[in-house]
Write a structure and sequence with these properties.
44% helix, RNA-binding, elongated, Four Helix Bundle (Hemerythrin (Met), subunit A), 4-stranded parallel sheet, Rossmann fold, 4-stranded antiparallel sheet, 458 residues, alpha/beta, 16% strand
RNA sequence: GGCGCGGUGGCGGAGUGGUUACGCAGCGGUCUGCAAAACCGCGUACGCCGGUUCAAUUCCGGCCCGUGCCUCCA
């Protein structure tokens, strides 16, 4: 009993988390479809579940974190057709860029990152089993899951089959026996990627890959399945249907879903043209500030992504790092303070945890004794680490060292600071202030102290 | 039409049946050549209307507004 509580979409309530196998937590998170660079909406689940995994690793001796790569999909096919590039090139490059972007956001890689195209035989095996058990049928080269064959279909999204049919937007393909049936396997034309199967050359439907790969690496029943809120229906609902009908075992026990984000008050969409890529944002702010901004709202709440919010995140981190400057030799404490752990264990309340970070920074700023400073800084560092924050060197943080293009000009800044020191020594304050204003106009802020003058970037 | 989520001080954003969230911004002060940073002080917020209660922002009901999903969008 760890005290961890998580909101389970299945029950729509917060539940105490206990792993199925003591001391081994198994979780699966839906990863990206690799057809385009990750946008900030893709980054939210990666960051949120990264915090969850960090927390779980501190609570349990063993954690297996699986996050898939979807590298067979009609959006990929469309992109290949439009660009004339081979599919393998597109998926490989996009995967590489995804890894780079997520690393820049401080997200640790998952333990296992299976690719859909490497698990086609497992998918075919599951589909055959479903057909054999009367849960699926072949029609015009397609294989469809027979939704009426599963009495409790709809338990995750909370909708009955009738309600779904009542939805006006359902387009019923002629080969479906029931309007709610969904595709497990579909035929490929010669120009589309395809694999030989008992039903001819074709490719998998969207949902079956997660059922097959989670079973491969985590077993029939495991602890946590996560993803964006939009995946609740149909993706996760259909995963449950496939897995439970095939395996006759409960699938994931806890379902976690992060809320959506908007951009400057508007829905992020291609038609509005306001899709913000992580890559683009990394040009405006450090990855850690982007991460901090994401964690500033609770993961289940909607998050309105704004330029102002990103700047505020940077300022918030500035304050925390500045506090750490007072204890340059501090090492992270073995464990984060109870206040921070308790906040995170209460369904990942990162905004509350961040408020405790600020409280620690305030105490650290007030501390005069070196031991107190080291102790508080150690607590702050351990707390930050739990959320993937505050891992940088405080002095490098303030000068923006390591960021693109940030290092050039450092020499000039030092030279101007030296000139100003001389002016100050000569009591020529007018000249000293002029230099300070000149640097300020370049986004360089000076701070005098008994130890000398230091500078930071705004 | 169906299912769901949300409306908190200037802004962001937690939380709670009665006592400070926290951060940013703002105002006053300490410090400083002046600043910056830091520290100290200052804000009587909880969509509307009813109900329950000694007491509701927090529970219940209704309403208004915003918003997400409803077959491949995280």
């Amino acid at each position: 009993m760890s005290g961890l509580k998580l909101h389970n979409t299945l029950s729509r309530t917060k539940e105490s988390f206990v792993p199925l196998v003591p001391n081994h937590v198994r979780l699966y998170v839906c990863g990206p479809t690799v057809y385009d660079r990750a946008h900030i909406g893709n980054a939210r689940p990666v960051i949120v579940f990264d915090v969850l995994v960090r927390l779980l690793r501190g609570l349990y001796p063993r954690v297996t974190y699986v996050r898939n790569i979807t590298d067979v999909d009609d959006k990929i096919n469309a992109k290949a057709k439009a660009s004339g590039r081979p599919i393998g090139d597109i998926t490989e490059e996009t995967t590489k860029l995804f890894h780079e972007d997520m690393k820049a956001l401080g997200a640790l890689p998952p333990d296992i990152e299976p690719r859909a195209t490497a698990h086609i035989p497992q998918m075919i095996g599951m589909i055959e089993s479903l057909i054999g058990q009367g849960h699926a049928y072949e029609a015009e080269g397609h294989v469809l899951f027979a939704v009426p064959s599963m009495p409790d279909y709809g338990k995750l999204s909370g909708r009955s089959r009738d309600e779904m049919i009542a939805g006006a937007r359902v387009e019923v393909a002629p080969y479906k026996k029931d309007p709610a049936d969904f595709v497990l396997w579909k035929p490929s034309s010669p120009d589309q990627p395809g694999w030989e199967s008992p039903w001819g050359r074709g490719r998998p439907g969207w949902h079956i890959e997660c059922s097959a790969m989670s079973r491969e690496y985590l077993g029939e029943s495991f602890d946590i399945h996560g993803g964006g809120q939009d995946l609740i229906f149909p993706h996760h609902e259909n995963e449950i249907a496939q897995s439970e009908c095939c395996n006759h075992a409960p699938f994931a026990r806890f379902w976690l879903h992060n809320g959506f984000l908007k951009v400057e008050g508007e829905k992020m969409s291609k038609s509005i043209g306001n899709i913000l890529s992580v890559h683009e944002l990394l040009g405006e702010a450090p990855g850690e500030a982007i991460r901090f901004a994401v964690l500033s709202a609770h993961y289940r709440q909607p998050l309105d992504w704004t330029d102002e919010g990103l700047k505020a995140a940077k300022v918030g981190l500035d304050r925390l790092y500045r506090a750490l400057e007072a204890a340059p030799d501090a090492r992270p404490a073995p464990e984060a303070p109870l206040s921070v752990r308790a906040a995170l264990m209460d369904d990942l309340n990162t905004p509350l945890a961040i408020s405790h970070l600020h409280e620690l920074a305030g105490l650290l700023n007030k501390a005069t004794d070196t031991d107190d400073k080291n102790r508080l800084a150690g607590a702050l560092l351990a707390s930050g680490a739990l959320m993937g924050l505050l891992g940088a060197n405080p002095l490098q943080w303030k000068t923006g060292a390591g960021e693109a293009g940030a290092d050039k000009g450092d020499q000039e800044i030092q030279a101007l600071i030296q000139q100003r020191q001389e002016a100050k020594k000569a009591k020529n304050f007018k000249e000293a202030d002029r230099i300070r204003d000149e640097l300020k106009a370049q986004g360089v802020l000076l701070e005098d102290s008994p130890a000398g003058t230091s500078w930071r970037r705004a």
